[in-house]
Amino acid sequence: MPCLRRSFRAARACPRFCASIFKRYADAERSQPRRRVRSYTVRTSSTISPVRYLVGAFAAIIVFAGLYLYFVRTLSGQALDQLAFDGAEFGRRSVTPLAQELLDAVPLVSVIAGLLLTGVVTVVRRNGKTLIVAFGVALAAVLSTQLLKMALLTRPDLGVEGYDGNSFPSGHTTVAAASALAVFLVASPRTRGLAALGGSCFAILAGVATLANGWHRPSDVIAALLVVALWGCVAGLVLTRGPWSRGGAPLGGRNAHPPAVDRLQRRILIPFAVVAIAAFLVTYFRAFGDTPGTLIAYIGGVTAIVSAGLGIGLTGIRLFAPLP
């Protein structure tokens, strides 16, 4: 009987013992500082403000108008542009066969490569709306360039020797840049930086080839890049507003593009921009002298094209970073 009594007492004491242990554990948990849990807000493309694309489009229009008013409508601008065009004789002697082959292949290569790359990326990402927008703005860029050059913009005869017909903006450069824009728009956030770098290099190569082969002046090429940049901003507006917005998809985020691509573009852009500015100043002050320096003007034109292409590509990465 004593054994049974001790067993009953132990059974009655067990719940009290367990409760005391749980109470001590709870008190210890309360005494510990609470861990802060990060919360993330998943936004969609329909919540992105379109102001960034409106500002980008306005900036492209302003720079385009400034290029046209100075390099096409003024005597000093025409003289500087023509000096770079004349200095391209050095490029024609050195890379004419390669430049000619490249220029001949630009339209076909751009269309085929653009169709293949955008098609493959769209199939992988399963985003047909973006594909339609990309093709639409690329076609609009090409058509608007031809409309501007053939019908709306004129080149006055201010007495500058050289080709007096209007070639502003460049059609070949527009085709190359428009195909690159289409690939850039359908690319994923993680590959968008690489698409921008590759597309910028392709458009720059086509633009420099038109200058080296004597088809266009530097301002023509940069203007073509700005036309494509404008329509890229239009694509951003369409993709963030209206029935074409990609609602419900997570954003790419600020760090979606590889930082290495940004650093590489900046490291290339800065020295080219410095050389372009220096060459412009030297050419400007020597344009109406005895030794105008056509080679310096040509180097300045090439570096200006490279700087414009990389700068627009880098800006595009920043503008489209929030888009999925």
Automatic annotation (TrEMBL):
This protein's superkingdom?
Bacteria
Which SMART domains does the UniProt record give?
Answer: acidPPc (SM00014)
Matching Gene3D superfamilies: Phosphatidic acid phosphatase type 2/haloperoxidase
Which first-to-last residue range defines the signal peptide?
none
Asked if Transferase is a keyword of the record, the answer is no
Q: Which UniProt keywords apply?
A: Membrane, Transmembrane, Transmembrane helix
Which residue ranges traverse the bilayer?
53-71, 105-124, 131-148, 168-187, 194-215, 221-239, 268-289, 295-321
Q: What Pfam families does the database record attribute to this sequence?
A: PAP2
> Where does the Phosphatidic acid phosphatase type 2/haloperoxidase domain lie?
130-236
From the Swiss-Prot or TrEMBL record, give the protein name. Answer: Phosphatase PAP2 family protein
Q: Which organism is it from?
A: Cryobacterium cheniae
